[in-house]
Amino acid sequence: MVSSAVIITGAASGIGRACAELFAARGFGVVAVDADESGLDDLAGSATAPGAAGPGAAGGEVVPLVADVSLEETGTRMTELALSRFRRLDVAVLNAGIGGTLPWEASGAIERLDEILAVNVRGVAIGIRSVAPALRDGGGGSIVVTASSGGLQAEPGNWAYNASKGAVVNMVRAAALDYAAQNIRVNAVAPGLTETPMLGQQRARPAVVEATSRRIPLQRWSRAEEQAAVVWFLASAEASYITGTTLVAGGGMTAHHGAVPLPPLTP
Fold it and tell me: What CATH number did the domain enclosing 101 receive?
């Protein structure tokens, strides 16, 4: 029996997968939720393989759940699975999200907006209200949501994604206020440009990676494992007095507005 348990949505790839691997390596029972069944199967095999947790470490267990986070039944299913399999729930990492740039007047733009909001906003709301009772019944716990630096500032053509992540940032603040009395902390991490499949098209173009990296004070994109480390911190006892906060992990991108001149974006 594991000593702690976590639910992680969007766990099949990117930051979610890095979180699942990290929590499993540190002994957590992990309910890994994603719509990508093959990705979950690969995660479950690799995260629980002998030696995956590192020398001398006691690895946890990864239980996959193929589901759509925008459906209310998914919130119920993932919580019930954690309680039935691990008899507890300590942390929820609500990471599932989708992106997509599109012009305001493009055909299908509103339909795409609905899709993005369904996963990025509705999915987070469902997750929070579903896991909160289990966390409360266990004496409290931590919810960490993946927001984005795009929720704190805008990019051309990315209005739907920007709007969804801006909503997440404020939802985290509101949930933190509503659940503080129940000893449930609610925080968010706001990643900057990160090497994940969501940005696969951009990563495949070296000129784009080079140009965007020059606009980041640390001069590079982040790795998914670096974002997972921030999630771990926010979920841990070391962050016991932090709630309602969005921790930006963007290499300094949000620090320079109006203060630090940056190189031009053109190569």
Answer: 3.40.50.720
Buried b (16+ CB within 10 A) or exposed e, 190-214: bbbbbbbebbeeebeeeebbeebeb
**204: in domain:** no
Residue 139 main-chain phi, psi, to 5 deg:
100, 0
Query: CB–CB of 203/223 below 8 Å?
Result: no
Question: 176, 185 in Cβ contact below 8 A?
Answer: yes
Both structure tokens of 55: 């020398």
Q: Which of 191, 189, 187, 190 minimizes the C-alpha distance to 242?
A: 187
* Count of domains for the chain: 1
- Are the CB atoms for 168 and 151 separated by under 8 Å? yes
Instruction: State the Cα torsion 74-78-80-86 to the nearest 10°.
Output: 170
* Radius of gyration, alpha carbons of the chain: 18
Out of 161, 179, 221, 232, the active site residue is: 161
Active site residue 241: no
pLDDT digits (tens, 9 = 90+) for 162-189: 999 999 999 999 999 999 999 999 999 9
Integer Cα distance of 152 and 62 in angstroms: 33
Q: What is the pLDDT of residues 182-216, one digit of tens each?
A: 999 999 999 987 777 765 566 556 666 666 667 77
